[in-house]
Amino acid sequence: MKVLIYGLNYAPELSGTGKYTAEMSQLLTARGHQVRVVCAPPYYPEWRIAPGFSAWRYRHDTLQGVRVWRAPLWVPAFPGGIKRMLHLASFALSSLPLLMRQLFWRPDVVLTIAPTMLCAPAALTLARCTRAKAWLHIQDYEIDAAFDLGLLKSPRVSRFAHWLERGLLSRFDVVSSISDRMVERAISKGVDKAQTVCVPNWVDLHAIYPLTQPSIYRSLLGIPKDHTVVLYSGNMGAKQGIETLAAAAAALAERTDISFVFCGAGVAKADLAARCAGLSNCHMLPLQPVALLNELLNVADIHVLPQRGDVADLVMPSKLTGMLASGRAVIAMAQPGTSLYEVTSDTGVAVPPDDVDALVAAIAALSADEARRAILGRAARRYAEQRLSPAMAIGVLDARLSVLVHGEAAVRPADADANGARRTPGEATKAQVAQSATE
Q1: Which pLDDT belongs to residue 151?
Q2: Range of the domain at 285
Q3: Distance (Å, rounded) from C-alpha 57 to C-alpha 311?
Q4: How much is the pTM?
Q5: Cβ–Cβ < 8 Å for 333, 359
């Protein structure tokens, strides 16, 4: 079938939504679908246009068999509330000519990635004009986050934005998200439960796996073999609560056997670097090449995943997939009843969001208990193998696409179960539909 994917972020962005949208496109193409993409030039998480791309020009490429059209985008150096909205609106407006071009292609499905919801009206219009099905996939509840984080504050604007959001959500044929709780939030906003499905983010289990030897980053950073390494790798933005990491490192500064490694980019990185400037137990790294990602993740004895309490159910951190696949213990800041808490309660340690003392205590306890770290690491890897394989996630998506367009589940003889074993066509279809119904 013809699938048009319409979203802000795309490859070659290395993290966040762009990474998963690109992989989704490529995996659907590998399954025989014709996939086209309308997106912006890469800019995330550095918040500047990547070298070789222009913020002000339209561009057409073919990447991994996927035809990609890019629309101009304004990227503020310091994204605040209003600036961030203007940034999103610039893409929603500049991408309209590219959407009009797809009228002649007549897609079967218009699959919109949120953020940004500002693109939803145009996506719905295109779908109705071409008699295509409209699908919204939510990586992040941007409207809720904007107000909960204080990026936008006007009660009147909040009421209008949430009213508009509810109206748009109810008009899509399918609304999906990346965790059960985020799907439930869509239902609470008025989406019919029968029109929802959970399509979790995934991880390449062949590319990310536990190493049997020390990571090269220990020697590159000069970290002694007997040190416990606490790693945070990923976007450094407003929703992450990055400041708690600096506070934890400061509280453990006198521990000569614990080292912190902070790797990534984002608007909060400068503040994190400033807070850690006088701490000898901290190492700062920029985003690392994809080829070294497994080495980076394996430098950790403990992964830390900070999160602000006011966005607990608004996002499911995509970086968690790599943490689990690396087979290392995870400490996550998560509230009971959230998807993140449910995952890490069996594969790591959950502590309350914004609670530095609890984070410090958990790091100290795990650093002194190598056996428990090993147990948690094995549980994390097992969870990744059972729940986070690309074949499983895209299988759910593909099956629902087939039901949506053709009225029947897709039959994929090459589908595999979580352990890589072949399924018969009937088993694959039943498993995909059952998964989509229970996720």
Answers
A1: 64
A2: 225-384
A3: 35
A4: 0.84
A5: yes
